[in-house]
């Protein structure tokens, strides 16, 4: 932990599935959670996956029925990671034990800040988050929206928490669904491109292992170059695209396919579905 980085208060992660578990691991690595992290899961088997992490206490409802309230009672920050349909019941369960000034953060897609604030009442700061799966390897992007009772201090605390697993983008809640179509769904778009380039390589005579290696490492290497250079991606593309060369011919095909329209249409479709889910559809 950097000397100038404030420590985090005790943290509870209720419903520490894949995303909650990733955050627990990030907090453990960072050393920021000086007050400790308590995670809860339904089963002993799932809880066992987080046992042994430094600074993390992993509880199972199967063995300790009061695990959620026990964890929430002692926490300064509570992350709610259960399935969206389970959120209201969990909030009603923990509301009586939350201390004034507790920060509650939603990891649940489609559940609004208003739902949290209505159930939890005054004295609790609520934020809504939208992390993505690269958080599993510490390279996530998390969208963060503050509720009406979350002051600058609460936002700063939660930002530090999510920075243990990647980058943070602060947005108004009205933009959370739009953000999910880019950073939330974005890894799937990337994986699809790798799939298709692998297929193209196989069609050109390469064996599957070599095809996959070329596709994966080309994208991974290009991403690393983009990050390291700090240059605009359009500029990097121009450097690879020699005039009248092979890459220029390939880029022309992709541009003729109107990829700009395709990506706009895809993200619009994702946004429409996000709005349906928010309305219970």
Explain briefly what this protein structure is.
The protein has 281 residues and is α/β, with parallel strands linked by helices. 50% of the residues lie in helices and 14% in strands. It has 2 domains: 11-175, Rossmann fold (3-Layer(aba) Sandwich), CATH 3.40.50.720; 186-278, ProC C-terminal domain-like (ProC C-terminal domain-like fold, Orthogonal Bundle).
Descriptors:
281 residues; 2 domains; alpha/beta; 50% helix; elongated; Rossmann fold; ProC C-terminal domain-like fold; 8-stranded mixed sheet
SSE inventory with pairings:
Elements: E1 11-14, H1 18-30, E2 37-41, H2 44-48, E3 56-60, H3 67-73, E4 77-80, H4 87-94, E5 103-106, H5 113-120, E6 125-130, E7 140-146, H6 152-162, E8 166-170, H7 176-184, H8 186-203, H9 208-229, H10 233-240, H11 246-256, H12 259-278
Helix pairs in contact: 4-5, 7-12, 8-9
3D architecture notes:
The protein has twelve helices and eight strands. With 281 residues, the chain is an alpha/beta fold. It has two domains: 165 residues, Rossmann fold; 93 residues, ProC C-terminal domain-like (ProC C-terminal domain-like fold), CATH 1.10.3730. The longest helix has 22 residues. The chain is elongated, with a radius of gyration of 22 Å. The mean pLDDT is 94. One of its GO terms (molecular function) is pyrroline-5-carboxylate reductase activity.
